[in-house]
Every structure is written in structure tokens, then in C-alpha cells.
Amino acid sequence: MRILISCCLFFICLRSFSQTIDVDKADSRSAAINNLFTASGTPYVEAKFVRLVSGSPFFNEKMMRGIVISPNGTEYRNIIIRLNLMESQVNFLNNKQEELIVGTPLREVTLLDTVNKKNYHFIFSDYIETTVKPEKGFYQILQKGKAELYTQHKKTLKESRPFNSATYEQSIETYLTYFVLLGGQWKKINKIKDLPSVLSDKKSEVLGYINSKGLSGYKQEDVESVINYYNSLFENKQ
Prior knowledge:
By secondary structure, the protein is of the alpha+beta class. The protein has one domain (2-190). The chain is built from 5 helices and 13 strands. Strands 1, 2, 3, 4, 5, 6, 7, 8, 9, 10, 11, 12 and 13 form a 13-stranded mixed sheet that branches. A hairpin with a 4-residue loop joins β5 and β6 (89-93). It is globular.
């Protein structure tokens, strides 16, 4: 019951504020905002991963400043968060530095890596505009344009018992899968050679680019390079 009430409070608060809220600014720290980042979450408990010896359920173990967008489009900036991709959850630090789980679904999450000067942008599957809905979870947006490139960080928990041990050990493996969204069609990319047929309106140009660069396999930078090239063919064209 307490969790249900907390979720309702979170939703009410999301509906009550302007489109963009910076929680670092003094004029944003109203009672309702404090309620949003204290009462709305449930405590994060690491007990389920207490025997974890390798891998992580998170995109990055480290807490980062971030931006979250609610289902109704309200944007909250400068929250300290980390993204649990295994369970499609966002953890945040409240004003007591306690780690909680956001108690309601979010539309988008952006992690701001100030050390490496990189941003990581994720969108939940329900808000990807495609005719065939993707598997539930957060997908990282790698490229925007006529063709959009996404990657799924699929997390798999495995248990094994070492020789002469009475307890099991856990490990989490991460598998990356790439998807292209073009004209409402959601296409899985198993290898870079799949791209010419997916980007069929520029098939010969894309194939020529792949061959000229000697691209093969499944490296993220290579897949991004092809999508970036494809999108460039439509730039400056009205």
C-alpha cells in the first residue's frame, strides 16, 4: 500500500510542474519537488546481487548527473541517478543521499558523464514510434536523422557453483544488439552487411561506402559510421 501511495504522489508531482525543472535551482526546491525525490521512491536493496562476482545490472555503476523525462513530457534536470538496464529501473539519490528507485515509469533518461564529456541518451521501448513494438526496456539512442540507430544492452544473470563450494556465484553478461528505425520500421541488425537492405532507398550508395571502408563485423563505431553516412545523403535537400 505504501508503494502504491508513493507512486501516486510521484505521478501527481510530475503533472504539477512546468515543462522543465532544474532541481539544483533554489526556486525549484518546493515541498512538492522534495516529495518527488524522497517519498516517491522505494529503497534500493542490493541483496539480490550479493553474490555477484562479475558484471553489473547498471549501464554504469557510478552515479551521474542526469535528466529524466516523465510520460507527460515534464523534464527534470540535474538529478543524481544511475540506470539499471536489467530491471528497467532508474535509481536516484534523495536529499538525504539515500539511493531509491523511481516509483513510476519514465519516458527518457540521459546520463551526463562530465569526466569523459559524453552524454548517454536512453528511451523506453513504449515511446519508440514503430509499427512493431520492441522488447520492453530502455534503448540507447546512438544516431538521429532520417534513419535512427539504437542499441539494446541486454543483461543476462547467470549462476554457477565453483568446485568444492557450497554457494553459487552470480555473473551478469551484457550483449549489445543494434536496431535501425526507418519510416516506422524497426529492423534488427545482426551484422553490418545487413544495412544495405535495411537502407534500401540508398542501397548501392551504402554498399559502396561499406566496401570502400572495408567494414565488417559488428563494431558500434562502424555501424554508427554507416548510419551517419546514410543520413548525410539527405542533408541540405529540401
